[in-house]
Amino acid sequence: xxxxxxxGAGSIGGSKIYIQEGxxxxxxxxxxxxxxxxxxxxxxxxxxxxxxxYDLWHLGLIPKLNIYRKDxxxxxxxxxxxxxxxxxxxxxxxxxxxxxxxxxxxxxxxxIVGSPTTIxxxxxxxxxxxxxxxxxxxxxxxxVRKNKDxxxxxxxxxxxxxxxxxxxxxxEKAEQLDEFLFHSIRSTKKxxxxxxxxxxxxxxxxxxxxxPVDHSIYGATAYIVEGDVDLTYTGDFRLHGKxxxxxxxxxxxxxxxxxxxxxxxRVGREEHENVSEREVYENALEIVEGxxxxxxxxxxxxNFERLESFKKIAEKTGRELVVTAKDAYFLHALKMVDGLENxxxxxxxxxxxxxxxxxxxxxxxxxxxISPFEVRANQENYILCFSFYDMPHLLxxxxxxxxxxxxxxxxxxxxxxxxxxxxxxxxxxxxFEVHGFKVDKSGKPIFEKGLHASGHTSREELMRIIDxxxxxxxxxxxxxxxxxxxxxxGEKAVILENGESWEV
Length: 504
Ligand SMILES: [Zn+2]
Description:
Blueprint: E1 2-7, E2 16-21, E3 24-30, H1 34-40, H2 54-58, E4 89-91, H3 97-100, E5 112-114, H4 116-128, E6 145-147, E7 155-157, E8 163-164, E9 168-170, H5 177-181, E10 191-192, E11 196-198, E12 207-212, E13 221-226, E14 230-233, H6 244-253, E15 259-263, H7 277-289, E16 295-298, H8 304-316, E17 320-323, H9 325-333, E18 343-346, H10 355-365, E19 369-370, H11 372-377, E20 382-385, H12 391-397, E21 403-406, H13 413-430, E22 433-435, E23 437-439, E24 445-447, H14 459-469, E25 473-477, H15 482-489, E26 500-503
Parallel strand pairs: 3-4, 4-5, 5-9, 8-10, 9-11, 14-15, 15-25, 16-20, 16-21, 17-18, 17-20, 18-19, 21-22
Antiparallel strand pairs: 1-2, 1-26, 2-3, 6-7, 12-13, 13-14, 23-24
């Protein structure tokens, strides 16, 4: 077995791990490396989609391999001299962009493996993505590009073509998923159905077993891949959420693994305590119980576990939880809430609604909508799920004091620190009592513990997990501190740089 970490070796995110035995190969994740992207790009300067993969290729943001979609390769880019790896599938750990964001670029005949929840989230992300954005969202269906003219330097979406879909292999059976996967809510174009299979029905060249694990997005999966040797991949995982027991089950299954590829997001962090989802719930509940006026809960999109916590808090405190239409679309797709029971949907003042909203959310849950003026009139009755990006819409509600609960991760880097200063300015403007962070005199955010639980195992837990699994070799990925593993496990730790291979 030959293991190559093409990306994500020494950074948090961008994981692209390749396993090969003879003519068989699979990728474990194929994510977007935000750290590398941000060397060149920011919000208003991104890759030019009209040039396909040209920009990403030259900037070194995707590995130089001959494995990409032909319709994304303009005439002045020749990938044919680069390694054409055999890839029978990409095994997806979870639906965060740093793990899946470059899959859409891969050859269209490469199937994706994922849990039904992960595949559903990806499809819904694609449905709700702003048109004209980057390629990251085009999974499992995608827009075919064609040459704009004979010259072939400029690629444009083929307006006449329906959307082809990638083949999907589910980690477990799911009834009626096909119906959602191949239902188009964009324009009049259809999604051309492809096969949907289950692990075991498909020959991947390896025996692949999937295990649900706990993470900050539902559907997260760890894999055990068996070839000449067996390899275990954790994806992103933790023990301190609602599904912690799933992680424990997986750890027992992984015992005595030959090779353990694990994330190490938090190994470099000095932390005194590990905040659990349960504690976040309790701390936030206490704040809401004492709150007057509107409560705004700011947590990361697609963190449905956190959303459920705030829904419970709303029920306990006699309030209603108001979510965005996008949240409602995802909850509907995941069939998570029975008819979105007890949830309200914020009716934004928008000039045009996208089809996913009119055809699905409005159509099914029209009576759940609440207008900004209704929220304004009875502010103490609601918990509003808003974040920085929604601040302009609060001008329609005009909160009168109230409480803002920041329940998301800390800032990384200067750019994000600036965003917190702007968020702070909004919150001061509305007169909120802010929990979760504050901004000091120099304009830097300071975060308070207790209102956010990380998606990743703490350093101490990871140490115990690796001890319990007791693998022959451990390969760290998704970490800025790979050497921590060398210090702890010496010879057992195999540290690979991006692009480096190791054979066992
Ligand atoms: Zn993640």
